[in-house]
Amino acid sequence: MFVSSTLFDMPDPTNPPERERTWQAGPVRVRVTLPKARRGDRPEPKERLTTERIVDTAMALMAEKGYDAVSMRSLAKALDTGPASLYQHVANRDELDQLVIDRIARRLEIPEPDPDRWDEQLKDVLRQMRDLFRDHPGSARAAMAQIPTMEGTMRAAEGIMAICVAGGISPQAAAWMCDLASLYVSAVGYEEALWAQRQNSTPAGEEPDHEAIDAEMVALWNQLPPELFPLLTRYSPELTAGDGHDRFEFAADVLVAGLAAVSEKYR
Amino acid sequence: MFVSSTLFDMPDPTNPPERERTWQAGPVRVRVTLPKARRGDRPEPKERLTTERIVDTAMALMAEKGYDAVSMRSLAKALDTGPASLYQHVANRDELDQLVIDRIARRLEIPEPDPDRWDEQLKDVLRQMRDLFRDHPGSARAAMAQIPTMEGTMRAAEGIMAICVAGGISPQAAAWMCDLASLYVSAVGYEEALWAQRQNSTPAGEEPDHEAIDAEMVALWNQLPPELFPLLTRYSPELTAGDGHDRFEFAADVLVAGLAAVSEKYR
DNA sequence: CCTGGGTTCGAACGGCGTTCGTGAATGCGA
DNA sequence: TCGCATTCACGAACGCCGTTCGAACCCAGG
Predict the structure, then answer these.
(1) What is the pLDDT of residues A166-179, one digit of tens each?
(2) Which residues pair with A32 in a beta bridge?
(3) B206 vs B252, more confident
(4) What share of chain A is helix, strand, coil (3-state, %, to 5)?
(5) Which of B194, B198, B224 sits opposite A154 (nearest CB)?
(6) What is the torsion angle, in degrees rounded to the nearest 10, for the CA atoms of residue B223, residue B224, residue B226 and residue B230?
(7) Which of A29, A105, A188, B151: disulfide with A152, CB 3.0–4.6 Å?
(8) Is B229 close to A257, i.e. CB distance below 8 A?
(9) Contacts by A209-212 with C-beta closer than 8 Å and gap 24+?
(10) CA of A76 to C1' of C16 (A)
(11) Would B23 be classed as within a structural domain?
(12) Over pLDDT 70: what percentage of chain A?
């Protein structure tokens, strides 16, 4: 009824150039089944499930409808199967999250360390991380919901370490900075995801709309009782000033300047 | 069968001295029913449900068994009632989280700002916040799962603002620091809670055991493939050095020094 | 052609947050 | 003191969730 299927190895399609080494997983086995044309009504032979396909679909679903829309059940439905099927390829929900954020973190581009521009480079990496979380809505939630232990996550640490050490930061300070930086960036991403989810429960895949979020925050601050919070009231322009971007730039500045300042203390 | 009950107003038992103003909630109405002695077998008249009692129980449950052990159902069972009853006093799970972390944040003690010691004072507040999260396991999880908008949370901001401004930090930098600082501290608390939960699923209310957590982290770093992560391997002593406390002190140093460094830039 | 190991997946388990509707308790005006 | 309107308590149910069980199925090696 169907031509016989072929089985062959194929490089990881995620990040083609990065093929030198397979630390995490073996080569991906993809099974392609060519259906005899025009046999349309007969239920097509389902494409084989693979961890790849599962992670792909999870990311697509998360990008489209947010983290909470990705459950083992909804994911299975998107793959046109039952929830139990997923467990053959993914240990549990936790591991799925790990795989997703690992795949995302792999996109991080670590610049060639330049001692003269280490501070700008470090900020760039932070911005990149923030952007990755933004480009994959929901991923920050997944990142916070787990302890970072996989390859993609480690690349970020390796990169930060490289830049800092090149910049003359003491190894101890640089090492702890990896922690601090990635924790901060994921927290920002997580918080943004929360706001985005709350304010609208974004129905039709519209992007998070950071402006509306900021506006809502301003409104909240402005109705504080002045007797209880004199300073918050007095400085409410400053407290509500700037959007997420401005605040992030400020934080990046603080982190980098602070690192430079305390580096020697932790030599 | 029972003597008639009396009804009277009572000050909020949470924080007796702070009575000057009731912004959030009205006076608490407590109804005390004295059962006729020795009528023991008859089911005692259940104490009335109040938001207070619910929050108290939620905090106790969280402290004993962690955030995940607190569900509307388990909470109801602990209060010897059904889940539906809670909704008479608490809008939903989100609001419960808000109430809990608000109650906790209220314990924060803001020092009288001293311009000469603003940096130490700021670090103290950060430490205090961290300790509050630690003293109430699971609360950091609740804090991250919501957008901070309530009284207790605002007190932290007010305090940080006061210290910074007294220390000569520009209002704009101080304002954004409130954001940055509380985001960082809750992220730390959240991560600690995750580790604690993962490694053992702490059965019998034993405290989180930060040492074991740190040990597990060291083990993880030490099995990285050196070819892929040369720097992480080379500097693994630094990367795994120090416990949660050391890292927190480092972060506090970075934040405070960084704030001082960039303050003028954001005037 | 058989057989056995891996894959698929419907069904079910126990838990979740939340809502509905009933019935009891309560406080108030008469 | 007595109705009565209102508030409160709460069992039951709805529709989710992550995960497991076990039967059916596919297919490579004998």
Answers:
(1) 999 999 999 999 99
(2) A6
(3) B252
(4) 60, 5, 35
(5) B224
(6) -130
(7) A105
(8) no
(9) A210/A243, A210/A244, A210/A245, A211/A243
(10) 20
(11) no
(12) 76
- Nucleotide nearest the Cα atom of A76 (by C1'): C9
Contact B103, B59 (CB under 8 A): yes
* Closest C-alpha to B108, from B120, B121, B89, B93: B121
Instruction: Tell me phi and psi for residue A137, to 5 degrees.
Output: -55, 140
Strands (E), chain B: 6-10, 28-32
pLDDT of residue B208: 53
* Model pLDDT for residues B35-85, shown as the tens digit of each residue: 333 333 334 456 788 999 999 999 999 988 889 999 999 999 999 999 999
CB A203 within 8 A of CB A191: no
The answer to whether residue B10 is domain-embedded is no
In a domain, B26, yes or no: no
Strand C proximal to B81 Cβ, under 7 A = no
CA A161-B259-A182 angle, 5° bins: 30
Collapse the DSSP code of A8 into the 3-class scheme (helix H, G, I; strand E, B; otherwise coil) and give the result.
strand
- Residue B233 CB: number of other CB atoms within 10 A? 16
* Residue range(s) defining the domain that contains residue B42: 38-211+227-267
Could you tell me if residue A248 is inside a domain?
yes
Give contacts of A151 with chain B, Cβ < 8 Å.
228
Contact between A83 and A74 under an 8 Å Cβ cutoff? The reply is: no
Helix %, strand %, coil % of chain B (to 5): 60, 5, 35
CATH of the domain at B96: 1.10.357.10
The pair phi, psi for residue B199, each rounded to 5°, is -60, -30
Total of domains in chain B? 1
